[in-house]
Amino acid sequence: MGIKKTVSVLGLGRMGTALANALVEEGYDVTVWNRSDRPAPPNTKRVATTEEAFEADVVVTCLSTYDVQEPLLGKNIKTLVNLTSGTPEQARATARWAQANGVDYVDGVIMAVPQQIGTPQAQILYSGQQEHHVLQAFGEPVYLGEDAGMAALYDLALLGIMWPVFGGYLQAVALLGTEGVTPRQFTPMAVGFLNAMVALLPEMGEEVQRREYETDVSAVDINVAGLRMLADAAAQQGIDTALAETLHDLFRRAQEKGHGAHSIASVVEVIR
Ligand SMILES: NC(=O)c1ccc[n+]([C@@H]2O[C@H](COP(=O)([O-])OP(=O)(O)OC[C@H]3O[C@@H](n4cnc5c(N)ncnc54)[C@H](OP(=O)(O)O)[C@@H]3O)[C@@H](O)[C@H]2O)c1
């Protein structure tokens, strides 16, 4: 085995700290930099300036946003592995900056929480240049092609499933809470129901792929009526109605577009 590359981590927040720890665990020589005085992970070398951090073979960034990150980048970086979350356009702009400055560029997103870093549960989606050696220390790298924006697009697409599901769960907890039902009582039922619903996704995906929405399962009409009931019940029980009203509006627009008798998959025609 050859000598491992030296790696710097910029950003010692929750995720950056987990990344630095995983690199040390894998035997990398790790330098860290952080704006404020947070404790450096064991067996890492703390530097005071980003310029010193740029001396490493690979610079991993994990800062809160691109706005924070942009002024910190320097053209002395050799390979930049950017794990700060952003939009596809932000990723592409950074890729253009990297190319103009002779910096190799990998744009990655972490589909995991810090506690999962270094385990196979941590999927690291990445695009741009192909560099998976450092990423392997963090979890399971999945390459999505040369367009540096693709990892960010997948990230937001996947999180865009997670947020409404979590929002819907919290809406359910609040709704039942108005009658004294506790999350502890309700959650096992929610998990069972969600597992059954997730099993329907492949069929829904097929319908979207074929753009064929005939259904003998459940039509948009009946779901518009159901969402109206949910929004009304939320109002009657005195909880926030925003999520239910938004979904009702979306499904209603599909109905208005002529998809009333079609399957739920046809709502995609309104979204796109
Ligand atoms: N946590 C997760 O579960 C998770 C999962 C997937 C992806 N991510 C992504 O990982 C990135 C970091 O998240 P995190 O959870 O580690 O956040 P965090 O704990 O809030 O850490 C934020 C980091 O950004 C730095 N920072 C903020 N403003 C700065 C500024 N103006 N100048 C310089 N540094 C600044 C902070 O430095 P200071 O210590 O000086 O404040 C800190 O190092 C984000 O893009 C996030 O979306 C996080």
Written account of the structure:
With 272 residues, the protein is an alpha/beta fold. It folds into two domains: 6-146, NAD(P)-binding Rossmann-like Domain (Rossmann fold), CATH 3.40.50; 154-271, N-(1-d-carboxylethyl)-l-norvaline Dehydrogenase, domain 2. The protein has helices at residues 14-25, 50-53, 66-69, 88-100, 133-136, 150-177, 183-198, 201-210, 220-237, 242-259, 268-271; strands spanning 6-10, 29-33, 45-46, 58-61, 79-82, 104-111, 123-128, 140-143. The longest helix has 28 residues, at 150-177. The termini are far apart. The mean pLDDT is 96.
Based on the model shown, name its key terms.
272 residues, alpha/beta, 48% helix, elongated, Rossmann fold, 11 helices, 8 strands, binds NADP nicotinamide-adenine-dinucleotide phosphate, N-(1-d-carboxylethyl)-l-norvaline Dehydrogenase, domain 2, 2 domains
Unreliable spans are: none
> Helical region count?
11
Shape by Cα distribution: elongated
Number of domains: 2
Bound molecules: NADP nicotinamide-adenine-dinucleotide phosphate
Mean pLDDT across residues: 96
Mind telling me which CATH architecture of the largest domain this is? 3-Layer(aba) Sandwich
Looking at CATH, the homologous superfamily of the largest domain is: NAD(P)-binding Rossmann-like Domain
N-to-C SSE series? EHEEHEHEHEEHEHHHHHH
Instruction: Identify the CATH class of the largest domain.
Output: Alpha Beta
Measured as a percent range, the helix fraction is 40-55%
Give the helix/strand class: alpha/beta
Domain NADPH-dependent reductive aminase-like C-terminal: 147-272
Pfam family, one: NAD_binding_2
Keywords: Oxidoreductase
Family: Belongs to the HIBADH-related family.
